[in-house]
Amino acid sequence: MKRTIARHSSIAALALTLSVGLAACGSDDGGDANAAEEQTSQMTDSPSDSMGEEPMSDDQPFGEACASLPASGPGSVDTMTEQPVATAASGNPLLKTLVAAVTKAKLVDTLNSAPELTVFAPTDDAFAKIPKKDLDAVLADNEQLTTVLTHHVVEGRLSPEDVAGTHQTLAGDEITVEGSGEEFTAEGAKVLCGNVQTANATVYVIDTVMMPTM
Fold first, then answer.
1. Most CB atoms within 10 A, among 47, 105, 115, 181?
2. Phi, psi of 213 (to 5 degrees)
3. Are strands 189-197 and 165-168 parallel, antiparallel or unpaired?
4. Domain 64-206 belongs to what architecture?
5. Rounded Cα distance, 81 and 104, in Å
6. Are strands 201-206 and 189-197 parallel, antiparallel or unpaired?
7. What is the pLDDT of residues 114-173, one digit of tens each?
8. Mean pLDDT across the stretch 55-66?
9. Where are the domains of the chain?
10. Which residues in 67-188 belong to E strands, given as ranges?
11. 193 closest CA partner among 48, 93, 112
12. In this structure, what DSSP letter does residue 169 have?
C-alpha cells in the first residue's frame, strides 16, 4: 500500500515538474503570440488604404450607348434615378419613338405607378428597322400596340446578376435574356445601355423591337 502511495506521489511530482517547465517555456512563446495577436487586431481594426477609397456603385449603367445620355438635366443618369420610368424615358434622347408609342397606348400612368419593373427599351433606330407600313399598322391598333409594349416589361427589378434567364412579361408571355457581365441579348436584341436606374424601374436599352407571338 505504501509503495503504491509513494509511486503515485512520484508520478504527481513528475507531472508537476513538467507542467512548471512547460509553463516557463511557454511564457516566452506566449509573449510573442500575444504580440502577434495584438498586431493582427490592430491591422483588423485599422482601415486599410483601399477601404478609404469610394466603392464602385452596383447601380452604374454600362454599355456603348450610355455615352449618349446627357451629362445633366433631363435624360441624365442622376435625373432619371429620381423619376418614374415613363417620365424618365421622355428625357432620354434614344427613346423618343418608344415614349410616343407608350403615350399613344395610354401606358404612361400604368408604368409610372408600378412599384418595381424591368423595362427593355427599344431605341429609335430599333423602331426604324420595322418597315414603315408595319409600324404604322401597329401604332394604329391600340390593342396590338399595348401587347407589343408590355412584351418589353417584366415585373420586378432585374440586376445584371439576375437578368439572364427566362422572364414573364406584363403581356403574359415570356422573354429569354442571355449573356453575363456587360454583354446581354434579349430575344436576340442587343443591350446597348443596361442597368439604367429610374425611381421605379431598371432599364435595358436594346437595339431591336421584340415582337411577341400574336
1. 105
2. -80, 115
3. unpaired
4. Roll (2.30)
5. 24
6. antiparallel
7. 999 999 999 999 999 999 999 999 999 999 999 999 999 999 999 999 999 999 999 999
8. 76
9. 2-44, 64-206
10. 117-122, 153-155, 165-168, 174-180, 183-186
11. 93
12. B
